[in-house]
Amino acid sequence: MPKSITLTALDIGTSSSKLLVGQKELYSPNINILAKEEIPYSVGVRRGEIYDPQKVAENISFLKNKLQKSKGIKIKKVLANISGPHLFTLRSQGLVSVSRADKKISQEDIQRVLQASQSVNLPSNKEILEVLPQEFIVDGQRGIKNPLGLEGIRLEDEVLLICIFSLVLEHLETAILEAGLEIEEEVIPSPLASARAVLSPEQKELGVAVVDIGAGTTSLSVFNEGNLIDFTVFPMGSANITNDIAIGLRTEIATAERIKREFGSFDLSSRKRKTKKGKIKKERIEIPEEGLSFSKISLKNIIESRVSEIFLEVAKDLKRISKKTILPAGVILTGGGASLPGLIKFGKQKFELPCYLAKPEEIPVLEDPAFYTCAGVLLSGFDFQEGKREKIAGEGIKTKFKKIFKIFLP
Ligand SMILES: Nc1ncnc2c1ncn2[C@@H]1O[C@H](COP(=O)(O)OP(=O)(O)OP(=O)(O)O)[C@@H](O)[C@H]1O
Ligand SMILES: [Mg+2]
């Protein structure tokens, strides 16, 4: 009998906390979603980072109890992700001499070179969360994905280190522990989780970017030749659009949020409709209960100017990261903020690349892109169980032993 396992993923976002319980027979492609829960508000989180763990713990407890009451599912452990502008990357290199007399590279040599590449001068309040080997170099020969068993004298590596401001990680751990839960496996960087959900291995190989538009953050991650090249988390997202609408239309945040979701769009094909007298008719939106009346075009202008600002930042960084890579698989948009009608066309213009929305293929029942980061966390959890965690971050070698390496950090 194939082994069936059940995992729970928890994504504490700036606007809402989401939870997915999934069941899977290991090594089979199908995932059965046993529960999907959301608290449609958030407390204690700002720009993707937990600043008040106690408040967040209450929300997590609420989700935990809801799950038990409504579905009879009792959870003890959750897979969790981490995000925010304090999640950052560093590039580093390592160099060791091959130790065996026959000059064949061993697992131990690989571990030593990965360890050497983590000897970076990080301030004491920052720590390495993940180590992603980009390539190994054996006696000057570049581009080696797995050097195990190759012959050589000098073993070098190039890695991407994912680092975090320790306090942000501590707050996440505290919030989950205070809610009476434990963290399963390792905390997963959100940009990797989003990418895990919406990208295929072929896209990662070709070259592709993922833009996850959340409420308080927007993240950009770029893949090429199967590896994550780099990512950036920007401290702005779809909540900024809501705030702009609230100011522009002089209304409350909750009303602005409703307006954005119901009427926000880049597609105004009907805006050029002419009146009988030949004047261009501006379609208006009336919300009598709020005493609001405004033209669709004015709403579009508010949204467009904020999205332009966000996409401009992302496009600048995309150029920096991708350099000469052309990204034939284009840009994949995800996150709750990607639901704005017409955003794809707008993205195409701004990024000068093909732009798509994508769904997690292994979990086709999920329709809402706001759940895709959570889906990626769940999928990463199953990857851990199946021993292929590298699926998330490329073809690199699993760096499970990184916790041990922390002791080597200055
Ligand atoms: N249909 C929609 N149209 C426009 N915006 C939407 C729609 N649905 C959701 N959003 C926006 O998406 C955002 C929520 O997305 P998501 O759940 O991915 O963010 P989050 O995870 O809470 O935040 P972050 O990842 O930044 O911490 C909100 O700002 C919300 O207004
Ligand atoms: Mg999010």
Q: Descriptors for this entry?
A:
alpha/beta, 410 residues, disordered C terminus, 6-stranded mixed sheet, single chain, binds magnesium ion, Dna Ligase, domain 1, Nucleotidyltransferase, domain 5, 19 strands
Query: Which ligands accompany this protein?
Result: adenosine-5'-triphosphate, magnesium ion
* End-to-end gap: 48 Å
CATH C-level class of the domain at 200-357: Alpha Beta
Output mean pLDDT.
Answer: 91
Which value, in Å, is the CA radius of gyration?
Answer: 23 Å
Overall shape: it is: globular
Strand content: 25-35%
Largest sheet properties: 6 strands, mixed
DSSP strand count? 19
State the low-pLDDT regions, or none. Answer: 391-410
| SS-derived structural category | alpha/beta
| Second CATH tier, the architecture of the domain at 200-357 | 2-Layer Sandwich
Q: What is the helix content? A: 25-40%
Task: State the assembly state of the protein chains.
Answer: single chain
So how many helices?
12
Spell out the CATH superfamily of the domain at 200-357.
Answer: ATPase, nucleotide binding domain
What topology emerges from the helices and strands here?
Blueprint: E1 4-12, E2 17-25, E3 31-39, E4 45-46, E5 49-50, H1 53-71, E6 77-82, E7 87-97, H2 107-116, E8 126-138, E9 141-144, E10 154-165, H3 166-178, E11 182-183, E12 188-189, H4 190-198, H5 201-206, E13 208-213, E14 218-224, E15 227-234, H6 238-248, H7 253-263, E16 284-287, E17 292-295, H8 296-322, E18 331-334, H9 343-351, E19 355-357, H10 372-385, H11 390-393, H12 402-405
Parallel strand pairs: 1-6, 6-11, 6-12, 13-18, 18-19
Antiparallel strand pairs: 1-2, 2-3, 4-5, 7-10, 8-9, 8-10, 13-14, 14-15, 16-17
Magnesium ion (MG) binds at residues 13, 214, 335, 373.
